[in-house]
Specification:
7-stranded mixed β-sheet, 13 strands, about 10% strand, elongated
């Protein structure tokens, strides 16, 4: 039998049932509230206390199975940050007023056997050892708390990195706030009044989903969780996705395997400096390509939780994690391994200078479906990259490029080659205004001019800058100096650090380069209008030959 209840309860009603324990499931994210959230809660509570008004903290979503009356365990699907924070706050008040039974009983559950009470909250979170932190905090007395406060404080500021856990930090912060609050210093009566207010007039709304089996209760509770969090509450999409994958593993009694795989996956994401949401974003484009979707994107959470073809709904958790790890491996290749291949790396450097991420989505999708191990495969990849560069640079720095990218992704998802994107009727004048893509054009012109790889560490310099206008000779002819400064003939890709020298000083500095292209950027002792015009036309002609469709 499945049932749902929702009834607003006071903190006393939520915490003082000594047979009920709140259990944080493995898929939840670790406790993370810090100074900002805890201090805000303290201030809100104090404001409501002074005004003698009830205070509502928020929702808590719980899942229970048919054995709740025997185990007393409620799985916390949402609201663990609030619960742990309130528990830490109650712990502080209990240490300051140990004679108050209501505070003391809110901290623990009584075991069926034995004399050792257990913390009210138990955590199975696998990404942090929050449970050890809860047990440690539960054992604190006033002397231990003051000892830890002294050890973690510099100039009255608690240093979070010196705390053993985020939970300890919250406890110490609340202890410091209460013991420094002039309303309560040497005024236990007022502190007692606040404690009674907290327990009786501050409330939560527990939404309790009950089912025969825990996995069914969790599944239903997750649906509520997603609905609530789609309406403005701050929660990462990754938390929803992790919960769904955990649910899949739970149904197969493979929770430990999921935990091990997820920990490894999250560690690799962190090592490569990607968020879990980043990887799911790349993954979504691969799925869209397979589904031939070329329309606008939905929000990431909506895409993965609502679409009938979503792998979270259609594939086993280990298959999904395998595909996510494949995306990670591709990103690692793009960041590290492909740099060893100078030809491939050059075109990726040009793409990376583009004004948004969409071309990279296409590159990742290509590598998801194609190998680049043989010389033939490598040539096909280079052809793809060159075509992608043509499409993106000719389309311009606009978000509308995404619709063309969607079509490219669909094409390569079905093992078809994309067109070359050479352009009919393009002229030199097209390259007069490069806009936000000037760096991409500069790298492309460098490679076309030298046939050499782009330096791993490059900078892009302007020979003539706005500040040089006063020293330009009388031979310079222009309507707007910005047109000169941002022209392809004025941009130089350097293999040496950029220095903000005047135009006259750059000849000497450029000669310290190891690249002939840089040394030859300025002919003679100074950069004349004729030099610029000649270089500008040369670079434009190289670009034109790259973009122009061959005439029959």
């Amino acid at each position: 039998m499945i049932s749902l209840t929702a009834e607003q309860k006071s903190i006393e009603s939520m915490f003082c049932q000594t047979t009920e324990q709140y259990v944080i499931p493995q898929y939840q994210r670790p406790y993370s509230w810090g100074n900002e959230q805890c201090y805000q809660l303290y201030q809100d509570l104090m404001d409501a206390f002074i005004d003698n008004e009830p205070y509502f903290v928020g929702n808590v979503i719980l899942a229970r199975n048919k054995n709740f009356d025997l185990t007393g365990e409620s799985s916390v699907v949402d609201g663990q940050q609030r619960l742990i924070t309130l528990w830490a706050l109650i712990k502080v008040l209990s240490m300051l007023m140990p004679e108050l039974n209501s505070l003391r009983s809110a901290l623990y559950v009584e075991p069926w056997e034995g004399n050792d009470n257990l913390p009210k909250i138990k955590s199975y979170i696998f990404e942090n050892d929050d449970n050890s932190a809860l047990i440690n905090i539960y054992s604190f007395d006033k002397a231990k708390t003051e000892e830890r406060l002294k050890a973690t404080t510099i100039n009255d500021d608690i240093i979070e990195s010196k705390c053993s856990s985020a939970i300890e930090y919250s406890l110490l912060l609340f202890y410091q706030l209460f013991t420094n609050d002039l309303r309560f210093v040497n005024n236990e009566t007022e502190l007692n009044r606040f404690a009674k207010y907290l327990m009786k007039r501050v409330s939560l709304l527990p939404i309790v989903q009950t089912a025969e089996e825990e996995k069914d209760a969790i599944g239903k509770a997750l649906t509520i969780f997603e609905t609530i969090n789609n309406r403005g509450m701050d929660l990462e999409d990754a938390d929803i996705f992790k919960a769904r994958l955990y649910e899949s593993a739970y149904k197969k009694d493979q929770r430990d395997d999921f935990v091990a795989q997820w920990v490894d996956f999250k560690a690799e994401c962190n090592a490569q400096r990607y968020s879990v949401d980043d990887i799911f974003r790349f993954y979504s484009h691969i799925i869209r390509g397979k589904q031939k979707i070329t329309s606008g994107e939905k929000k990431l959470r909506e895409f993965f939780t609502n679409e009938s073809f979503s792998p979270l709904l259609t594939l086993p958790y280990d298959r999904v994690l395998g595909e996510l790890n494949k995306v990670l491996a591709i990103l690692k290749y793009l960041k590290i391994e492909c740099r060893k291949d100078k030809d491939i790396n050059t075109w990726l450097q040009i793409i990376n200078e583009y004004s948004n991420q969409y071309p990279i989505y296409a590159v990742v999708t290509y590598l998801y479906h194609y190998s680049v191990e043989t010389e033939v495969e490598k040539k096909d990849f280079l052809d793809f990259l060159q075509s992608l560069v043509r499409f993106c640079l000719y389309t311009g720095a606009t978000t509308s490029v995404k619709f063309g990218i969607y079509n490219i992704i669909r094409t390569i998802s079905f093992q078809k080659k994309i067109e070359s994107y050479r352009v009919e009727g393009i002229t030199l004048a097209y390259f007069n205004h490069l806009g936000r893509l000037k760096n991409s054009f500069a790298l492309l012109a460098y490679h076309l001019c030298t046939s050499d790889p782009i330096p791993d560490k490059y900078t892009i310099d302007k020979i003539v800058n706005l500040r040089d206008e006063e020293i330009l000779g009388s031979d310079w002819k222009y309507d707007n100096i910005n047109d000169i400064c941002n022209s392809i003939g004025n941009l130089v890709v350097l293999d040496i650090p950029k220095k903000y020298n005047s135009m006259h000083d750059k000849t000497t500095y450029y000669n310290t380069s190891n690249v002939r292209y840089v040394k030859d950027a300025i002919e003679g002792d100074t950069f004349t209008y004729s030099n610029w015009k000649s270089r500008d036309v040369k670079m434009k002609e190289l670009l034109l030959s790259f973009f122009k469709k061959n005439e029959l």
